[in-house]
Amino acid sequence: MSRDLVNEMSAAQPGAEWSDPWGGGHDCWKVGGKIFALVGAQGKHVSVKTDSVETAAFLIETGVAERAPYLHRSWVALPLDSAPDELAHRIRMSYRMVRASLPKKVQATLSGS
């Protein structure tokens, strides 16, 4: 799995927008102004939101992910060389949770489901 493929998966989410808010080569993917996926400047992991601190802890304990630095405990960092289906699933789930948390008016302005 490469950074390019993670960016491709993230870009495919309806209403996804890319930015580099801190400069230095970060790939920050947002929906409605909120982050759902983040690849740091060093590009070894993609950080995504999980549904709970417990899910994040489980993924960390089982070796699927690491703690995502600088983010809430419900976020995890998956290595870019993780199984492609795992990465795709986690990016989609993170996107869906973040999108669902947006105000209904903002959600209505976004394309796709």
UniProtKB/TrEMBL annotation:
SUPFAM superfamilies: YjbR-like (SSF142906). Signal peptide: none annotated. The keyword Zinc-finger does not apply. GO terms for molecular function: DNA binding. InterPro entries: YjbR-like_sf, YjbR/MT2646/Rv2570-like. It holds the Pfam family YjbR. Keywords: DNA-binding. This is MmcQ/YjbR family DNA-binding protein. It comes from the Bacteria.
